[in-house]
Amino acid sequence: MAKLPADSPRFNYYVSRWDVPNKIRRFKADGTFDKRVENCPPIDPAWLRFAPAAFEEHRRYCAEFGIAMEPPLADEMSQSDAPMSNSRRLSSNQ
Q1: Do residues 57 and 15 lie in contact, with contact meaning Cβ atoms separated by under 8 Å?
Q2: What is the pLDDT of residues 41-81, one digit of tens each?
Q3: What is the pTM of this model?
Q4: Does 15 map to a domain?
């Protein structure tokens, strides 16, 4: 989404309609994620604060239109199956 400001309403639209969370899960599960993103520019940390709203719009869109949500990967879940905290999620991506 080059040249799209993170605070643009279109950011949530593209994340949800392009099914970005499910694509990331599929690419991580099949081992192609690193290859697919190796030439992508780094993500500006300022964008991270907009991700929760984009993921929520994705969940809402999938629920409204009956789109199956792919199950989380094992490394996305904590041992208690509770969602990871933002600080834990960010530290696991370094």
Answers
A1: yes
A2: 887 788 889 999 999 999 999 999 998 887 776 666 554 44
A3: 0.66
A4: yes
